[in-house]
Amino acid sequence: MIKKRIYSPGPVDVSPYTSLEMAKPIMHHRTKEFEAVVADVVQGLKYVFQTEGDVLVFASSGTGAMEGAVVNTLNPGDKAICVVGGKFGERWSQLVSRFGGVPVDITVQWGQAVDPKVIAAKLDADPSIKAVYLQASETSTGVAHPVKAVADIVRKRKDTLLVVDGITAVGVMNMPTDEWGLDIVVGGSQKAWRLPPGLAFASVSAKAWGFVERCKQPRYYFDWAKEKKNLAKNTTAYTPAVSLMVGLAQVLGEIRAEGLDSLFARSASYAQAFRAAMKALGMDLFAPGSPSDSITAVLAPEGIDSGAIVKHLAAKYGITIAGGQDHAKGKIFRVSHMGYLDALDMVPAVAAVEMTLKELGHPVDLGAGVRAAQEVLVGA
Ligand SMILES: *Cc1c(COP(=O)(O)O)cnc(C)c1O
């Protein structure tokens, strides 16, 4: 028997408490009972997004909320800066061009964070740019982009929106939506929310609603103004993902009971422990300068294909992690710190990486990574 453990950057592990809630008999969505779930979820989402503004929920994967951010605010012909330093940055650029916008790509080397000064210079040079799209945590590279510094630049401009893909950031890293002035922040259930795939979230500022009113793009399911009206009545425009909403209510209850400060500190300590472990094993991080706390991307040792590490972990130890994409394929492996995980869960992940490297013929001082991780976790 092999016990399955999932450390992939989505989907993540779901707690049995959440699974049991979701296994209860299904309720009908046009009932008082479900309206109470919606009301609860909306309040909980505002707490986690740290906003007094609206947070919308859709039955889609995270990309649905990314698409919604574009079709509700960007008119055909509008220019939009897209920070492209990985697969998900590319997605912003593709969405903008697919809907008739003009992406102004700021290309960043994979593994590095964007320099906010470059964004400021582009906006100064062309004040007609209507939006800046970026990732808070670029899951394909393990980079955390400097969202606050970018927000300080964008919030001064009344004709430019800041749209943040927070799919692997909201619920892991502190990103206070209102305090920083983030116009749209997108989330997805199977990443930082300890839920199965199928829900997408979007917070929308007052400034962003002004853009929504002026936006002429056709949209139907992802019509944000319509969804806002329905949520105000504790219902949804179309059939919601009832079971996932019930699971979300459970997770939000847990998060509120724990408190955001503890959640962020805990997540950061897992990431620090894992990074320390990988360094102790002599490996380099792919994003050493600005690492995300939700996921760590590690460069495989010289001569070892990172895909072989991913395969071996799954086959021998039942551990799911992710490899690299595109030109990082074969070079990096990625381990998530999101989901139903606690501090001790970092230890088997590190131990399995050590054993895997040794079994793949790489010299490893067994226990060196585990010790480094424990030292961080003991101090945390
Ligand atoms: C996973 C992910 C997405 C895409 O989300 P889906 O749920 O697969 O549509 C977008 N952005 C980031 C940063 C992600 O990690």
In short:
With 380 residues, this protein is of the alpha/beta class.
Topology record:
Elements: E1 5-6, H1 16-22, H2 32-49, E2 54-58, H3 62-71, E3 79-84, H4 87-98, E4 102-107, H5 116-125, E5 129-135, E6 137-138, E7 143-144, H6 147-154, E8 161-165, H7 177-180, E9 184-188, E10 200-204, H8 206-214, H9 224-232, H10 242-258, H11 260-280, E11 295-299, H12 306-317, E12 319-320, E13 322-323, E14 332-336, H13 346-359, H14 368-379
Parallel strand pairs: 1-12, 3-4, 3-5, 5-8, 8-9
Antiparallel strand pairs: 2-10, 6-7, 9-10, 11-14, 13-14
Helix pairs in contact: 1-10, 2-10, 5-6, 11-14, 12-13, 13-14
The structure holds pyridoxal-5'-phosphate.
Residues 10, 61-63, 88, 135, 139, 165, 167-168, 188, 191 line the site of pyridoxal-5'-phosphate (PLP).
